[in-house]
Amino acid sequence: MDIIKRYKIKRYEDNYIDDIEDCIVVEYLFTIYIDNEEFITLICTPTSLRSLVIGFLHSEGIIKSMNDISSIEVYDNDGYVKVNLRDRKLLDEKINQKRAITTGCGKGSIYYKALDEVSENKNNKEKDRYIDYKNIMSLINKFNNKSDIFFKTGGVHSVGISDFNEILFFEEDIGRHNALDKIIGRCLEEKIDVNNKVILTSGRITSEIILKCAKLNINHIVSRSAATDKAIELARKLNLSVIGFARNTKMNIYNE
Amino acid sequence: MDIIKRYKIKRYEDNYIDDIEDCIVVEYLFTIYIDNEEFITLICTPTSLRSLVIGFLHSEGIIKSMNDISSIEVYDNDGYVKVNLRDRKLLDEKINQKRAITTGCGKGSIYYKALDEVSENKNNKEKDRYIDYKNIMSLINKFNNKSDIFFKTGGVHSVGISDFNEILFFEEDIGRHNALDKIIGRCLEEKIDVNNKVILTSGRITSEIILKCAKLNINHIVSRSAATDKAIELARKLNLSVIGFARNTKMNIYNE
Predict the structure, then answer these.
(1) At how many degrees (to 10) do helices A176-189 and A207-215 cross?
(2) What does the longest C-alpha to C-alpha distance in chain A come to?
(3) B105 catalytic per annotation
(4) In sequence order, which ranges of chain B are alpha helices (DSSP H)?
(5) Most buried in the list A81, A141, B2, B225, measured by CB within 10 Å?
(6) Closest to A43 (Cβ–Cβ): which among B42, B101, B249?
(7) Which residue out of B23, B102, B103, B224 would a mutagenesis test of the A interface target, given it has the greatest number of A Cβ atoms within 10 Å?
């Protein structure tokens, strides 16, 4: 699958126009079938598609772990994936709930009931570590310099997960939600213990991003972009640490 | 309605941590009821909500003009709007079509059949003007310096429409699709002739952005961000001029 294509375009600079070849990010339509029924089409970057599907299903509350999936077959050349569930109970519940279309690049349909579920799990949870901000600064700067596709095309978001030392997984996507779902999917596939891990993201932190992380029990989120009011309030309620605008030597600590 | 809220946060810089007050962008849930049934909840910035709804319904192919709406009542303090349609035919068609969750910040559910409809309208359309790139450069720089909410919070996208001289309307939203829909809504409300107009946007140009503009018969799009491969191919097919990475003295001309 191509992730980047080369196009002949024109570049304008100071009144001159040149013919050049430029790297353009690919937009890929990827349809998820669940139990042989079409569920949704995601618009994404065609990498880590298996992780994307798993993470998406988790973020949407359709699965809680890999055990809830009986099979998953990705047909990447044909733009679809077939998922079979062991139990449709969660799916059927979700279908009957309200849908909210999201602020997110690449993903929609967060089901707001999720908030109640997450709150119940998290309310009494204790923070799993003291944050070393100097270390966070060096991590995010490492992260900010890591995106190949971004440097070539300027058209993707990145998300990584770190154990506060190394960046364990790193994913890119034209949608910031997709990139996070790819990471969530990889954590589920590889049964990563998310305690003492931090999510690093290029994208803005909205309430849906907080919810997705909280569902996986990730307690730390660092972004190089802004956070919204609802994200901050949710993070304070759920006891997640949230840092934004983390670049070079500065960052904003929205919740410790 | 507050668009920005002030929060007490901490700022880290070079190993020092200060208590500061920061401006945070508000995330607002806004539910659209059509003919007394709940249709969808948008996550948006609470400005120009009437324009947002009108633009959204147009972008989704549920209305073609203001004539298709018999009434619209915005209850902004309660987070909802009631729309009544003169004719549910388009809505019922759409509900039965496939949904694609979008790459977009703030909006989903582009119905891909839209592409065929738009193609039919546009295939033989002639370009309405010769592009003066130097003028475009000065317009986008004016546009890039216009966003108050962005300067305060760093958390919004902006979209404007221009007659190649002035920026006629300017809208901001946490979702790049919402910001465009607000502009589309205003054009419909004020019956703006979109010939010889150009859309200016801070957000990436994906195929859905092209489709939304094409549906309104807007032929020129300039962004300060990237375009995807599908956006470029669609623009070339539909004869829209598309410029990306327009900043300071440079821009990429993806389609003339």
Answers:
(1) 0
(2) 62
(3) yes
(4) 49-59, 89-96, 113-122, 133-144, 148-153, 176-189, 207-215, 229-238
(5) A81
(6) B101
(7) B103
Partner residue opposite B24 with nearest CB, options A42, A98, A232: A232
Give the other-Cβ count within 10 Å of A93's Cβ: 13
Output the CA torsion sign for A207, A175, B46, B58. Answer: negative
B24 and A229: CB-CB below 8 Å? yes
Which residues, 6+ apart, have CB-to-CB distance to B57 below 8 Å?
Answer: B63, B68, B69, B83
The one-letter amino acid at A231: A
B164 CB contacts (<8 Å, ≥6 apart)? B129, B132, B135, B136, B139, B196, B197, B198
A150-174 confidence digits (pLDDT tens): 888 888 999 999 999 999 999 999 9
Contacts of A5 in chain B (CB under 8 A): 229
Long-range contacts (CB closer than 8 Å, 24 or more residues apart) made by B221-227:
B222/B136, B222/B139, B222/B140, B222/B198, B222/B246, B222/B251, B224/B140, B224/B143, B224/B144, B225/A154, B225/A155, B225/B201, B226/A24, B226/A25, B226/A153, B226/A154, B226/A155, B227/A24, B227/A155, B227/B252, B227/B254
Which residue in this structure is represented by tokens 């994307």? A52
Contacts of A59 in chain B (CB under 8 A): none
Structure tokens at B233: 């191919």
In a mutagenesis test of the A interface, which of B1, B7, B43, B153 is the best target, namely the one with the most A β-carbons within 10 Å?
Answer: B43
Q: A4: closest CA among A144, A139, A174, A195?
A: A174
Task: List, for residues B75-133, the tens digit of each pLDDT value.
Answer: 999 999 999 999 888 888 877 765 555 444 333 344 455 566 676 665 445 566 678 99
Catalytic residue among A23, A44, A105, A213: A105
